[in-house]
Amino acid sequence: MAKKKMMADVRTPAPPDVNSSDPGPVPTAAPPAKPVKGEDLKLGDTAPEIDLLDQSGKRHRLEDYSGKGVVLFFYPQDETPGCTQEACDFKANYDKILKKRAVVLGVSPDSADSHKNFKKNHDLPFPLLVDDKNRLSKAYGVWDAKKGIRRST
Predict the structure, then answer these.
(1) What b/e readout covers 35-61, taking b as 16+ CB neighbours within 10 angstroms?
(2) Could you tell me where the DSSP H helices lie in the chain?
(3) pTM, 2 dp
């Protein structure tokens, strides 16, 4: 199973310009490599595997998005002011992100029911993944044992 490199590395050294009409090169899967975990994760490293259920119980794995960029954003809690603003900012730019051949996935430790309500209340067009055991948050180095998830993209 091929592991995917982080989105910014497979496109260009700089983040993609979401205002550009040129979608740029199509991201490709990285050659198989051992993923890096936690705080050691750096641009160009093989991304840790994603294997979580969303608000509707649908399973999402990194390999499901082969050939696409993945915008993965971590947030601590549904319906808090900062997290709601972050999710709504992704919603506002969603069409631009799709034109870049990328997908958006939100991740928090909240339950599927909480995610369903959050998604519905704010008409969010992307899946919200349930990381109730914080495995993905830890793998990407955004989990703080004292404070929980640090908002990160």
Answers:
(1) bbeeeebeeebbbbbbebbbbeeeebe
(2) 7-11, 81-92, 94-99, 112-121, 135-139
(3) 0.73
More confident residue, 152 or 139: 139
Look at residue 56 and tell me whether its pLDDT is greater than 80. yes
| Strand pairing report for 143-144 and 128-130 | unpaired
Residues 104/73, Cβ–Cβ less than 8 Å: yes
User: Which two tokens mark 74?
Assistant: 């971590």
Judged on CB neighbours under 10 Å (0-12, 13-18, 19+), 118 is: buried
User: Is residue 85 over pLDDT 50?
Assistant: yes
The predicted-structure confidence for 28-51, as pLDDT tens digits, reads as follows: 444 444 544 555 667 777 888 999
Q: Would you please indicate which residues are annotated as catalytic (active-site) residues?
A: 83
Residue 148, by phi and psi: left (phi above 0), alpha (psi -120 to 50) or beta?
Answer: left
| Amino acid code (one letter) for 81 | P
